[in-house]
Structure formats: structure tokens, C-alpha cells
Design a protein that fits this description.
The chain is α/β, with parallel strands linked by helices. The chain has 18 helices and 22 strands. It folds into 3 domains: about 180 residues, Rossmann fold (3-Layer(aba) Sandwich), CATH 3.40.50; about 150 residues, Rossmann fold, CATH 3.40.50; about 80 residues, no CATH class. Bound molecules: adenosine-5'-triphosphate (ATP).
Length: about 500
């Protein structure tokens, strides 16, 4: 390749105590290319990018930017070398204003005689938001008033404002709606065409193959190979990732809808600030999918069922088991009533809502299963460990052990913990918002198989997802939402395809 090298790593290593997350990786990232980075959960992708972007110090090895030694102490240092990264989890600080978030750590640029010129800061914030087509917004309002996707856009705007020469996108597109993804693709291509370098981490192989000029494959901390666009071949890339041939079907293979007679959830005429007159039932043994664009309200539906958002009108009824095995209706008043009636909820924003980062994998897994493990308030010794060990094995959670802090896990492995937390306890109703976000192909297959077997055991499962193939592949019925309402209902046996759904989303 005759393009100039922008960044080079030579035998770079990162160890966390006994775990070698990145092992002797030497790679070159060129100007004028979008380089993809792919590998199973925990293969070291985020760790490499964290070293390049100054978030983590390296253990061994060297890095060079345009041939000069490069050892960033922190992200501001990396930014001074024109390297910026946007990460998988949200990197905005809720109580700070949008403008303050954009210029975090660099407010000094607006200081006039020791006082921050807010007007100028707000003007520049608007300029930066225009780079990501944000639309009209009051930049003095706190970031916590924004939704997940908008907060992601703030981070992207922040990175682009400083005109990076190397732009690193770590597993961000899976958190975005269809439009948000296309926007990032456009931004990456624009930077590439301006002869800048882009490093793009994703689990979405078709997306990587579409956008990238070359793909570097990681496995267990090792760089396995770098494949040029002209040699992209899906099966070969998958094989290099997992080190074996991947076979078998991804989704369930039956084409007819099925479910039990008993409704487990009834949503009766719910209105919230976003939702309008939502009515539906979720039945025993049913997988119900909800799809829509961001802003359609689909994520809010999950929160209402789980009791996190109180409807302004209408109610959610859940059928919880009475001591003798019969089912009785209960109104969901808050999260406690939802959990007491065996509703489990995997949130899209797992760091904020689902997991305790400071607690261990075992503690997180066991938390919602305490009722199941304990008898008369006592938990037999060993039961917690046994339970945690089983979940870790079943979901193939990559960690140094069950006592490792969840905050230290790779993104996909965090998602496995939040999934494992609910399926392992007695929840018979699962509300899963974007359940496979950031999860690699191997685990996706396991999760889909698991969901299908839970359905067959009579679990009632609601999947809220931006991924249409996932909805079509797994659901008995699909509700398509638009502007806070249910716009259309489809059944599995209607021979569904993506464009049929999209027609009712836009
Ligand atoms: N702060 C930390 N302390 C201990 N171990 C860590 C820490 N950060 C990462 N690891 C470990 O390093 C390994 C590589 O993690 P990394 O986040 O780089 O993986 P990844 O390829 O980005 O995964 P994913 O696709 O799930 O995001 C994992 O085994 C992870 O548990």
C-alpha cells in the first residue's frame, strides 16, 4: 500500500494483572483509509483503541505518529496529536450542559480575563453540533435531558470539532438508529476522502465489509490478520475471528407464529409524554418484537412495562404467580412490583440502568436471583457460586473469574452479564431492549437459541430492537412503532422482509 502511515504500533502489549488483553500487536493505520477492527468479545479491540487514544497506558511496546514516538498520557494529550475516539458506552456527564460536555477539559479556550465567555462557548458548541446535523437545541440545557442517541451525537461532535487526523469509532453504531448509523458512515467516509485515517470497531460484519477499506482481525489479544477490501469474504473473516468454521442457523428456523393462551402482560391505553394510546398483550410462550426508528417511543415501552416510567394515562397489568401456581393480575406501579411479578428487564443503556459497575460478576448475576436461591431469607452456602458459575459458563462470559468487577469487562461481556442476570432468576417475562448490542456472532447464536428454548418453556419475551433481521428472525409477532403509536402489527407467517417493516416505520 503506498498510502502514508499515520499511526503505527510495534509489539504493543497490555496486561491487566494476569490477563493479557493485547499481546504484541504491530499494526499500521494509513491515511486515506477506513480500517475496521473485528474480533469476538474480549479479544482486545477496545483495549488497543484505548491505548491509542490515551485512555490506558501500555504495558510494553511502542507507538509512532507520522514516524515520531507517541506515548499519550491522557485523551487530551492524544487530542493534541489529532487523535480522537468515541466509545461504546456513553461518555457524557449528565448534569453538565451540552456545551460544557463538548468542551470538557478545554473550557480555557473561552476564557477572557479569567472568565469563561459563555456566549462564545455556546456559539462554538452550535458549530460543532452542526457537524453531526444535530438540529436545533438549547446548548445550555443539561446533557441528561437528551436521549441515548443524542448523547452519542454530542460525543461525535466533540471529537470532530478538534479536526482529528485519526478518528476512532468504538462500537458506536450498534447504539444508533438506522439514520444515526448512516450519518456515522457518511462522516467516516468524508474523513477518509480528506486523507485522514479512521479506525472503526464493530461486530456488524456486513456493515464493516460495506464501509471499510481493510479489516484487522483480533483473537484473544493477538492480531490474526489484516484483510484488504478486495479480499473480503464473509466466511473467511468469521473463521479468522473464532478460529473455527461457524455453522448452523442463527435464528429460529420455524416460520409459523405460536404462543400460549395466557396473557402475561396487558398494556392498556398507555400515554406518556412520548407514547400515545399503546395497547397490546404479550402471551406466554410468545416472542413479541417491537421495531421503529429512534424517537418512535419503542424504548419507552420497555421502561413503562418495567415500572420505570409511570404512564400519564392507562396501565400495565402483569400476571404474577400466586403462591399456589395460579396467575393473578397486578398493576405495575413501580420497578418493585414489576420484579415481584417476575418481570426481567435488559436495558439498552446497560451501564446506566442495569449493572453495578463496582460490584463483581457474581454479585451482579446473583442480585436479582436472591429470591430463587434463598429459602426463608437464607441463601445456602455455595448456591451463589454455583449459580454464577453456571451463568458464566452458559453465556461464555470472558473474565478472570466470577469475582472480577463488571466495570473491568469488555462491552459485549457486560451485555452477557445483564442478560444472564435475568434469565437465571425466576423471571418468566423478559423485556429485552437491544439484547444483542455489542455481542459477537458466536454469543448471538447462543442467545438466540436460548431465547427460543425459553419461549418453548413458556416464557413471555418482548424484544425491542433496531435490528430488523433480529426482529424478523426471532419474533412470533412484530409491532412497528411510529411517532409514539403502534402503526402496524405483523405475524411471523406473513413471510416478512425488512422493507415491509420499514414502510411502516417512516
Ligand atoms: N480494566 C480492566 N481490568 C481488567 N481486565 C480488563 C480491563 N479492561 C479490559 N480487560 C480485559 O481485557 C480483555 C480485552 O477486553 P477488550 O475490552 O479490549 O475487548 P473487546 O475486543 O473490545 O471486546 P467487546 O467486543 O466485548 O467490546 C477482556 O478479557 C477484558 O475482560
Amino acid at each position: 500500500m503506498d498510502k502514508p502511515v499515520f499511526l503505527e504500533t510495534r509489539s504493543i502489549v497490555k496486561r491487566f494483572n494476569e490477563v493479557t488483553a493485547v499481546n504484541q500487536v504491530s499494526m499500521k493505520i494509513y491515511r486515506g483509509e477506513i480500517r475496521g477492527l473485528i474480533g469476538e468479545n474480549g479479544s482486545g479491540k477496545s483495549t488497543i483503541s484505548a491505548m491509542i487514544s490515551g485512555l490506558l497506558p501500555k504495558t510494553e511496546g511502542d507507538m509512532y505518529v507520522e514516524g515520531q514516538p507517541y506515548a499519550p498520557k491522557d485523551p487530551l494529550n492524544a487530542r493534541a496529536k489529532k487523535i480522537a475516539m468515541i466509545v461504546q458506552e456513553t461518555g457524557t456527564i449528565g448534569p453538565l450542559s451540552i456545551a460544557e460536555n463538548i468542551f470538557l477539559g478545554d473550557e480555557g479556550r473561552f476564557a477572557r480575563n479569567g472568565i469563561i465567555d459563555r456566549k462564545l462557548m455556546h456559539q462554538e458548541a452550535k458549530k460543532s453540533l452542526a457537524l453531526v446535523d444535530f438540529g436545533e437545541v438549547d446548548v445550555s440545557q443539561p446533557a441528561l435531558t437528551l436521549n441515548f442517541e443524542q448523547r452519542k451525537l454530542i460525543e461525535i461532535a466533540r471529537a470532530l470539532y478538534y479536526e482529528p487526523e485519526l478518528f476512532i469509532v468504538d462500537e458506536t453504531t450498534t447504539a444508533l438508529s438506522h439514520d444515526g448509523r448512516l450519518l456515522i458512515h457518511r462522516l467516516m467516509r468524508k474523513l477518509r476522502d480528506q486523507n485522514k485515517a479512521v479506525l472503526f470497531i464493530s461486530h456488524d460484519l456486513p456493515e464493516l465489509m460495506d464501509v471499510c477499506d481493510a479489516l484487522t482481525v483480533m483473537r484473544d489479544g493477538d492480531l490474526i490478520t489484516t484483510i484488504d477490501r478486495s479480499e473480503f469474504e464473509e466466511n473467511f473473516i468469521k473463521q479468522s475471528m473464532v478460529g473455527r468454521v461457524i455453522e448452523g442457523d442463527y435464528y429460529r428456523s420455524d416460520t409459523s407464529a405460536s404462543r400460549g393462551e395466557q396473557a402475561m402482560i396487558r398494556v392498556n391505553g398507555v400515554d406518556t409524554s412520548l407514547l400515545r394510546d399503546i395497547h397490546f398483550e404479550l402471551y406466554q410462550g410468545e416472542i413479541l418484537g417491537i421495531g421503529g426508528l429512534s424517537g418512535s417511543g419503542m424504548h419507552e415501552v420497555g421502561k413503562v412495562i418495567f415500572g420505570e416510567i409511570k404512564p400519564q394515562r392507562g396501565e400495565v397489568i402483569v400476571y404474577g404467580e400466586n403462591g399456589d401456581g395460579t396467575l393473578l393480575p397486578h398493576k405495575v406501579k413501580n420497578v418493585q412490583t414489576a420484579i415481584a411479578n417476575r418481570v426481567g428487564y435488559v436495558s439498552k443503556d446497560r451501564d446506566r440502568e442495569t449493572l453495578i459497575m463496582e460490584a463483581s460478576i457474581k454479585e451482579n448475576l446473583v442480585l436479582s436471583a436472591l429470591g430463587k436461591l434463598g429459602k426463608f431469607g437464607l441463601i445456602p452456602p455455595g448456591a451463589e457460586k454455583k449459580f454464577a458459575r453456571r451463568q458464566i459458563g452458559e453465556l461464555n462470559i470472558k473474565a478472570s473469574g466470577m469475582n472480577q468487577r463488571v466495570g473491568e469487562l469488555s462491552g459485549g461481556n457486560k451485555q452477557k452479564v445483564s442478560f444472564g442476570k435475568w434469565i437465571g432468576n425466576d423471571s418468566k417475562i423478559l423485556i429485552l431492549d437491544s439484547p444483542t448490542r455489542g455481542v459477537d456472532v458466536g454469543v448471538k447464536t447462543t442467545m438466540y437459541q436460548l431465547l427460543y428454548s425459553l419461549k418453548q418453556q413458556g416464557y413471555a419475551i418482548l424484544i425491542i430492537s433496531e435490528e430488523l433481521p433480529e426482529l424478523i428472525g426471532m419474533s412470533d409477532r412484530i409491532l412497528v412503532m411510529k411517532d409514539g403509536k403502534i402503526n402496524k402489527e405483523f405475524r411471523r407467517d406473513q413471510n416478512l422482509n425488512e422493507s415491509m417493516l420499514i414502510d411502516y416505520m417512516i
